[in-house]
């Protein structure tokens, strides 16, 4: 069955318009944060989102975890439609533009207790391990793949700055929550229209108002990656003088400056 909207039309209706509005507001509003730091963080995260998600989605499609409506996509690269790669970029940008409306940096040192870093890494690796176990059953395959995919990134982010993220939890929750709710609705509409379909065999059968739990979890986790990544990035930029005070980092900086001068 041919869906009422193509995947590209879905973007034209649901993802691109809010990005344009939020991007304009981020640039025009005095209270919003839009500077080199924010822009460079967005570019880095877009690159990482595409690079990290591409192998995962191209492993899921051949397994039949999800597929696309007849005539819904323009073309595919590997097993994934062009519009799906575009979604990696647009979701990252949408969530970032929302965060930029109120992004602030707290005055906290980068020198966090080692026990906090270890706890963050172990929590992320625990999620990864749980995903690995769930991959062994057909009904939990999609759920397991999300957790297995998410765990390493969460381990890195939490290992680096779990303490800071907890301090900024209100900002993080607001930045994650609103775009996640919006994308849940958009995803539910897309599934209802037949733009893409989710396998019953590879899901546990629990839904959120008709949206499969796994789909809801994916958008939640992806937005957590974006928000935590940007919050930590601007924190590091704000404290970069502290990095320069660390002997190893200072030596590397001096070598780079000396090499640049010699050149």
TrEMBL record:
Any one GO CC term of the record: membrane
Nucleotide-binding among keywords: no
A GO molecular function held by the record: intramolecular lyase activity
Chief subcellular location: membrane
Tree of life domain: Archaea
Transmembrane segments: 6-27, 39-57, 85-106, 118-135, 141-165, 172-196, 216-236
Signal sequence region: none
GO BP terms in the entry: carotenoid biosynthetic process
UniProt keyword Nucleotide-binding, yes or no: no
Pathway: Carotenoid biosynthesis
Membrane topology reported for the UniProt record: Multi-pass membrane protein
Coiled coil segments of this chain: none
Localisation per UniProt entry: Membrane
UniProt domain Lycopene cyclase: residue ranges: 24-92, 141-226
Keywords on record: Carotenoid biosynthesis, Isomerase, Membrane, Transmembrane, Transmembrane helix
Listed name of the protein: Lycopene cyclase
Source organism: Natronolimnobius baerhuensis
């Amino acid at each position: 069955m041919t869906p009422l909207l193509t995947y590209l039309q879905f973007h034209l209706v649901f993802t691109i318009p809010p990005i344009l509005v939020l991007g304009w507001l981020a640039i025009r509003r005095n209270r919003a944060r839009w500077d080199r730091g924010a822009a460079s963080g967005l570019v880095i995260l877009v690159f990482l989102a595409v690079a990290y998600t591409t192998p995962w989605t191209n492993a899921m499609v051949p397994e039949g975890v999800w597929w696309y409506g007849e005539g819904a996509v323009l073309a595919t690269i590997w097993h994934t439609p062009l519009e799906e790669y575009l979604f990696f970029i647009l979701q990252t940008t949408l969530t970032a533009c929302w965060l930029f409306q109120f992004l602030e940096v707290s005055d906290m040192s980068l020198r966090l207790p080692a026990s906090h870093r270890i706890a963050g890494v172990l929590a992320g690796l625990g999620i990864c391990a749980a995903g690995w176990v769930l991959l062994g059953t057909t009904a939990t395959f999609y759920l397991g793949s999300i957790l297995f995919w998410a765990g390493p990134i969460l381990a890195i982010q939490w290992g680096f700055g779990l303490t800071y993220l907890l301090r900024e939890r209100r900002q993080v929750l607001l930045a994650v929550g609103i775009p996640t709710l919006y994308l849940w609705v958009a995803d539910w509409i897309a599934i209802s229209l037949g733009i893409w379909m989710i396998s019953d065999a590879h899901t546990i059968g629990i839904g959120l108002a008709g949206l499969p739990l796994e789909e809801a979890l994916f958008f939640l986790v992806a937005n957590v990656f974006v928000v935590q990544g940007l919050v930590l990035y601007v924190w590091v930029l704000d404290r970069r003088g502290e990095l320069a005070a660390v002997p190893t980092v200072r030596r590397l900086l001096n070598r780079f400056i000396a090499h640049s001068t010699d050149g």
